[in-house]
Structure formats: C-alpha cells, structure tokens
Amino acid sequence: MVHFKTLNDINVKNKTVIVRVDFNSEIDPQTKQVTNGVRICAHAQFTLKELIEKGAKIVVLSHQGRKGDPDYTDLKQHAEILEKMLKHPVKYVDDLFNEEAQSAVKQLKEGEIVVLENVRSWSEETKKGTTEQQSKTALIQNLAPLADFFINDAFSVAHRDNVSMIGFTAVLPSVAGRIMERELTQLNKVLENPQHPCIYVMGGAKADDSLEISKYILHNNVADKLLLGGIISQLFMTAKGLNLGKGTMVFLEKKGLLDLIPGIQELLTHYSDKIILPVDIALNVDGKRLEIPVNNLPSEHPIFDIGTKTVEKYIEIISTAQSIVVSGPLGVYENNNFCYGTKTIFETIANSKTSCLAGGGNTIAALDQYNLTSKISYISTAGGALVEALMGKKLPGVVALETATETKALP
Ligand code: 3PG
Fold first, then answer.
1. What is the pTM of this model?
2. Beta-bridge mates of residue 149
3. CA 364, CA 217: separation in Å to the nearest integer?
4. What average pLDDT score do residues 280-307 get?
5. Bridge partners of 323?
6. Edge-to-edge, what's the strand order for the sheet holding 288-293?
7. How far is the CA of 290 from the centre of ligand 1 (A)?
8. What separation in Å is there between the alpha carbon of 157 and the centre of ligand 1?
9. Pairing between β-strand 323-327 and β-strand 198-202 as defined by DSSP bridges
10. N or C: at which end does the chain have fewer Cβ atoms within 10 angstroms?
C-alpha cells in the first residue's frame, strides 16, 4: 500500500510550487508538432487548474522526448497548448534554472504559471542517482530555494530516477498532484485490493513485459484469470507443446522471444487453470483472414488474431468479472481483417460497466479507434511506468514521494 500526501494536505495560496508534470507527447517527426495533447490536458484539467484556483505561483517542469530522438523538442508549443486548454495565460521561458528562469519564478504572482525549458535539455537530468545525490545537483540547488512545495504529478515518469522526479523530495515538502494521486489510487485498487474475480486481458507485442506482469499477478493471487492474445499467447501455446508452424516460429525466433519459453512453462505448471489461451486463431493468408482451431496448427501462415470461438469463450469469462485490467490488443488491430478479436473484446469490456483499468499506447489507440474511451472507468496516462507497476516493481518517483512525506512535516 502506497502512502503519500496530496494537494489536500498543503495550503498553496500565494506559495511557489514546483510541479513536475509529464507533457511528453506524440510528435510529428516532420513538423515537430504535438499530435496528441492528452497528457497536457490531464494535468491542465486537474492539478494545474486547481493550483491556479487556489492562488499558487506555479512553476511547471517536464520533459519531451530524449536528446537525439525525433520527438525531442523544447516546450514552447506545450505551453501554448496548455494556455488554450486552461484559458489562462501561461508564460514560457527557454531556460531551466539559470538567471532567466530564476527571475521568472521570482516574479510570479498568485495564480500565475510559468513553464520552464525541457528538463532533458540539461544532460544531468537523466543521470542515475539516489534522492540525496540528485538533490545536490544544479537543478535542485537553483530552483528549490525559490519554492515552498514540490508537487509530483508525473506518474508516467515515476519509473525513472531522473533528477526532477526525485531530487526535490529531499529538500522540499512534497506531495502528489491529482494525476499522480488518481493513478496510484487506481493501481492500488487493481494490485493490492482487487475485486474478485479479477480478469486480466493481455496481448500486444511486448511479450517480455507481459510475461513479467503475468508472473507477478499470478504469484500474488491478484488475477483470477489471465486471457491471452497477441504475441504472448503464441509463446504460451508454444510452451504448451503446440507447433504453430514456420510463419510464426521464424518471427518469434527472430525477435529472440523463444528464450522466454522456460519461464512460461514454469507458470503453466502452477497456474494452468488460470491461464486461458486461444482455442482458435486467425491466420493471415495473403492478407485474408482464415480462422482455424489451434489443433489444426501448424501453418506456414502467421497468426494475426484470436478466432471467433476464442472471442466467445473470453466474453463468457469477462461476464463473471468484478474487475478488469486490459493491457495490449489481442491481434493486429490496425488491419481491418484482423481487428475482430480486439474490437469485440474491448467493446464487451467497455459495455460491461465493470471497473476497468486500461493502459499502454496501443490499448489506448485501439479504444480510441472504436470510440470506447469514455466507457472505460480508468485509462492510465502511463506506458512504461504502468507496466513496471503491474510487474510489482517499486517506482523511484513514488518511493521518493512516500519517503518525503514520511520524513517532512508539512507547513
Ligand atoms: C513515457 O512516455 O513513458 C514517459 O514520458 C517516460 O518517457 P521516457 O521513456 O523517455 O523516460
């Protein structure tokens, strides 16, 4: 159980607050423009709006991309998007902690907001270190003395020990922003306190991540049933001794995924009643969908979706759920001939009214494509951080927040 303080525990009126958000967004590599502002919107709608209304002086820190990558940009356009979303002036300063940034912070008045330069413009931001070590770096030493509170709202970066994520917590009273709070509360619901039966629906291409999540949720009795699709289901079928055929095996081997088989076999030994695999699949035969029972494998054609009988079976199990976690599409959902499994299962979950946590880039994109976003009870803003949390890992950003709030009396 994570213990952390929130905005309810501090009085921010006329106080300077440093807010670490995650504005890291999809960027068009040609135009360098933000193509999806959903994360900016989340921080704006909840934490930043509340801070403005409460009369805080707000300093916003974020990263965008990684230096050298096509999605690395400054935060000028993010500040403009934020201004439009908030319908409130937002200043942008192209400096992180030097004179210009410091002077902008000092000049802030109640309810005013300044976005500073991309924290990753400073090379030390991503250097590894403890909270103590990070707190001695230039970013913290220059900005913390100008602030009263640190608010961490960037759950989706909580798996990083970056300076801006953990350094301030050693020197400033620190609390979770509303997005951080929502994410941690939802995670707590599905990991520590799940409503049973709790059904995990897992697919996608990141089979190594899916296996680590499977291990954690099965060993810890979090999931009652694990419904598999995507690449991970192909590995489980192989581990069970099924010969999927050349089309699939060459692909799995090329990706180096066959090394995961021993770990999967061990899970199957202990939890075969909880792990539910496809009974039929859809093959890609020259772009066309051909469904066959798994017993009719091997095939030279690659597997692109779960089959109709599997969908029926999964729907029946989903109808018994009291809570659901969805991570990853069940087939190649981008292709109309192979979206049936993902679309039908996601629609079933969305219409079931059962409490559901969904996350991950492709899951969110698929839900969006089928206009289901508003029907899912909670969609995480995180990718990697959510995956690591579902694996049961401690996230440095969250640990720093917990330690900070344990050790510091808040004014
Ligand atoms: C994310 O998009 O997952 C976060 O913003 C973290 O980004 P990173 O993987 O570059 O640290």
1. 0.90
2. 17
3. 22
4. 97
5. 198, 355
6. 288-293, 280-285, 303-306
7. 38
8. 6
9. parallel
10. N
